[in-house]
C-alpha cells in the first residue's frame, strides 16, 4: 500500500520534476518503483496478437489515459491523471463494426457495448489503458482498463485488475505520461 496520495497540482509539479512511475504487470503481480501488489489479467493470459473477445490482455507498453470513478461509491481520488465521474448513461463500445468502436459513448447506444455503471464493484474505479486508441483498429480489442479485482482475483476478460485500495492509492502517483507494461 502506498503511504500517501497527491492532489492534481502536487502531482503535476512532481511530474515536471521527476518521472512518474511506470507500472508493470507480469505473472499475477502489478509492480511500480517501491511497491507491488497481487493482480489479475485476462482469462486467456497476455497476448501480443490480442483480438476482440479473445479474453486476453494485450502485451506491450501503453499510456494510462484517464481515470473514472463511481461518485456514489468512491470519493474522487486524488491524482494528477485526469479524473472523470462515471455516469449511469455511459458505455464503452465493443462492436468492431461500429464507428465508435473502443470509445466512450452515451447510452442508450445501439451497438454492442459495456455499461460502465455496473451493479458489482469492478468499475468503481477504472483507469483507461491506451491500448488500440491511436488509431483504433477494428477488431483489435476494446475496453482495456485497470479496474477493481474480484475478491478471489479471478481472471478478467482482458483488463488488469487489482484490489480497490491499491488502485485508489496508485492514482496518487499517476499523471500525464504514466504507462503500464503488460507481459506474460
Structure explained in plain terms:
The chain has a single domain, classed as L,D-transpeptidase catalytic domain-like (Beta Barrel), CATH 2.40.440. The chain contains two helices and 14 strands, in the order αβββββββββββββαβ. Strand 2 and strand 3 form a beta hairpin. The chain is globular. The N terminus is likely disordered.
Tally of separate domains: 1
Question: Which CATH architecture is right?
Answer: Beta Barrel
According to CATH, the fold-level topology is: L,D-transpeptidase catalytic domain-like
Oligomer: single chain
| Low-confidence runs of at least 5 consecutive residues | 1-7
Describe the largest sheet: 9 strands, mixed
Q: Total strand count, please? A: 14
Mean pLDDT: 92
What radius of gyration results from the CA coordinates?
A: 15 Å
CATH superfamily: L,D-transpeptidase catalytic domain-like
Q: Sum up the overall morphology in one term.
A: globular
CATH class: Mainly Beta
What portion of residues is helical?
under 10%
**C-alpha end-to-end distance:** 24 Å
> Strand content of the residues, in percent?
25-35%
Q: Supply the helix-strand structural class.
A: mainly beta
Number of helices: 2
Taken in chain order, the helices and strands follow as HEEEEEEEEEEEEEHE
